[in-house]
From TrEMBL:
Residues 462-656 form the Galactofuranosyltransferase-2 C-terminal domain. Residues 511-548 are annotated as: Disordered. It comes from the Bacteria. Keywords: Glycosyltransferase, Transferase. Residues 70-181 form the Galactofuranosyltransferase GlfT2 N-terminal domain. Belongs to the glycosyltransferase 2 family. This is Galactofuranosylgalactofuranosylrhamnosyl-N-acetylglucosaminyl-diphospho-decaprenol beta-1,5/1,6-galactofuranosyltransferase. The keyword Transferase applies. It comes from Serinibacter salmoneus.
Length: 664
């Protein structure tokens, strides 16, 4: 057992060395008593769980017996328990992420303090990277402040600290609890400005502003809040804006500019933070997120203690299933040059089904390449040394910045206990809608800048294969935009700033004439499907089961694309296909189909077009050959242009060129 120093202060007064500690992690509770959030703040299941070596159950989770109990929280920090009740704070928001403090700071110990208004028993636990937990101290406390000084020396690869509270001798009340670290280890005492980019989501944005203004814990860490409004449904016209604005006072500034996408909006927040000179950090927040304000405070405090200036990002929970962790740590596979979850991360973890104590993989420290800009704290020093965002409009701006930062010695940490709720990208069609252009172009741009592999590793092959897949799926609008993206890359880096304000209109107009891009929300808008002949053996095509079958199916589908289309199929769809089933191995066998959108709100008619198939396929072959032949030269050109593209001066010129008349 670790050596623990525990002291009990009966009268609740501060210990003599209290001023030498900085509170970095306060135990908090949801203010609205949303039952879907309870599992993120308190654990009422019987435990503690001790996960056996090697694992646990399916997906690395040792399932605890769930508790049917629920809890009502009287305020953000206090908690009442009836006699015999027990609560554990081994939860996402209230456990202390010890391994991250061990890895990224010089802090060697943490102090836990719990103030009780009545007797209770407090048990302190820790875990290791395998998810195994052990009790490190147990105290029967009277009224007053219990203090535990806990070492961080054993958290090299993972692990958390937490405590349980047990009312054994009658009702009890916890007035507050917090985790503090020695102040001498602070590298900085910085504060942050918040940069929010918004486009026609005034209700979401105003709700966010109101939450930021109401939380007293943020007042000493947030200097300014910049709202960059790029839409025509203005934040300032929302009915709740006056109240939200009053809560922030002169710390709030709303800036209007033309729609420059996320990269343009966030770069404006970055530039304004640098110009004001008040903050050591800028915290980027999406407009359509719901934040946990305590996570914002924790991000700032953690950044102050990191041994070098560090980008500190927050995780993403699902807006639709609030207890589901959607993104816990992201990396870029630099051979494929494609983003995704870190290898140890299990997607869409549901905390209501698997508690922190019972989920071994959550106890590993997850190291990342970047953090999404739904919530991301960036040191101003990094902005000054490596520039602002690339002018990419949307997609890959956050990933590219993380890679660039790490190359220049600025670590990136996705920090547990700091998170927002956001609409998950699994409910979007952004690989086939107008965003297909930005997915393709920006992935290539990032690879030209950062790929360590000759000719970009497998990116060119994967890119061409994706074009073929979209063609076999009758998604001609996506292919046209992807080919436009490659042509723009070949034109040179100068187009990135030049097209930032006008590129979206061009992309939308190019896509508009394709039938697969026209979405109807009324099922009755389409004729009832009618097949020319039934499917072979009464079965719809399925995913090929092995590489040989995969290749044969692709060849057969490609050969079918050059055959004439039945005239009736151009007006009457052959099938209605759900989003999950709309794969190339099924759509390539049809002349037409009604395909549901990913969000389930609409549908489009896909019609096979042999001429477009031949034209786009040949164009894709030609462009990919050109990119391979010119890879080295293009890579050098983009790398040489990067400093200018991301400079404050270049961005200022773009802001001025896309200024909006405030009277409009």
């Amino acid at each position: 057992m670790s050596t623990i120093a525990a002291s009990h202060v009966v009268d609740g007064s501060e210990s003599a060395d209290e001023a030498a500690y900085t509170t970095v992690h306060r135990v908090v509770f949801p203010v609205d008593n949303d039952p879907d959030l309870q599992s993120l703040y308190v654990d009422l299941s019987r435990g503690p769980a001790v996960v056996p070596p090697g694992g646990g159950g399916e997906h690395g989770t040792h399932v605890l017996a769930a508790s049917d109990a629920s809890m009502t929280f009287e305020d953000r920090r206090a908690l009442e328990l009836g006699e015999g009740e027990r609560v554990s704070f081994a939860t996402y928001f209230n456990a202390f992420p010890a391994s991250y403090w061990r890895r990224w700071t010089d802090v060697t110990s943490v102090r836990l303090q719990v103030e009780l208004d009545a007797p209770a028993r407090v048990a302190v636990y820790k875990s290791n990277a395998r998810g195994e937990s052990q009790r490190v101290d147990f105290v029967r406390g009277e009224s007053g402040v219990l203090t535990f000084d806990l070492p961080l020396t054993s958290f090299g690869d993972g692990g958390w600290y937490w405590f349980d509270l047990h009312a054994t001798d009658g009702d009890t009340r916890m007035a507050w609890a917090q985790w503090s670290v020695p102040s001498t280890h602070a590298r900085a005492h910085g504060t942050a400005s918040i940069g929010i980019t918004t486009f026609n989501r005034p209700d979401y944005c105003v709700a966010q502003l109101q939450k930021l203004g109401e939380d007293e814990g943020l007042r000493d860490v947030i200097d300014r809040v910049y709202v960059v409004d790029q839409g025509n449904q203005l934040v300032t016209n929302d009915p709740g804006y006056a109240t939200a604005s009053a809560g922030l006072g002169d710390r709030l500034r709303v800036i209007r500019q033309g729609n420059l996408g996320g990269s343009g909006g966030f770069s404006r927040g970055m530039a304004e933070t640098i110009a004001a000179g008040d903050s050591q950090y800028v915290l980027l927040l999406d407009d359509d997120v719901v934040s946990e304000p305590e996570g914002i405070r924790r991000s700032v405090e953690f950044a102050n203690f990191c041994r070098t200036p560090t980008i500190v990002g927050g995780h993403m929970f699902s807006m639709y299933a609030k207890q589901v962790l959607h993104s816990f740590g992201e990396r870029v596979n630099q051979y494929r040059f494609f983003w995704g979850s870190a290898p140890q991360v299990k997607p869409s973890h549901d905390f209501s089904a698997g508690t922190l104590r019972a989920t071994p993989w959550l106890h590993q420290r997850i190291d990342v390449d970047y953090n999404g800009w739904w919530m991301c704290l960036i040191p101003v020093q990094a902005l000054q040394e490596i520039g602002l965002s690339l002018p990419l409009f949307i997609k890959w701006d956050d990933a590219e910045y993380g890679l660039r930062a790490k190359e220049h010695g600025f670590p990136v940490v996705s920090f547990p206990g700091a998170a927002v709720w956001h609409v998950p990208w699994t409910d979007k069609d952004d690989a086939v809608d107008w965003q297909a252009y930005y997915h393709q172009r920006n992935r290539w741009v990032a690879a030209l800048l950062h790929s360590p592999y000759r000719n970009g590793g497998s990116l060119p092959q994967e890119s061409f294969a994706a074009d073929v897949k979209h063609l076999l799926s009758l998604q001609y609008s996506a292919v046209e935009l992807r080919l436009k993206a490659l042509e723009d890359i070949l034109s040179g880096a100068g187009h990135l700033h030049d097209d930032l304000g006008s590129g979206l209109a061009t992309v939308r107009s190019m896509r508009a004439h394709h039938t697969d891009a026209k979405v109807s929300k009324e099922p009755s808008d389409f004729p009832e499907p009618r097949r020319n002949r039934p499917p072979r053996k009464g079965k719809d095509p399925e995913r090929p089961s092995n590489p040989i079958a995969f290749g044969l199916s692709a060849i057969a589908g490609a050969l079918r694309q050059v055959r004439p289309v039945r005239e009736r199929a151009k007006a009457v769809p052959e099938e209605r296909v759900a989003t999950m089933a709309a794969k190339w191995w099924r759509l390539s066998h049809l002349d037409s189909a009604i395909v549901t959108s990913a969000d389930g709100a609409g549908a489009s008619m896909y019609i096979r077009d042999p001429e477009l198939f031949r034209s786009y396929l040949m164009r894709s072959v030609r462009l990919h050959r050109q990119l391979l032949a010119r890879w080295s030269r293009l890579s050098a050109d983009y790398q040489q242009a990067q400093a200018e593209l991301t400079s404050v001066e270049a961005w200022r010129r773009t802001f001025e060129a896309n200024a909006v008349d405030e009277r409009d």
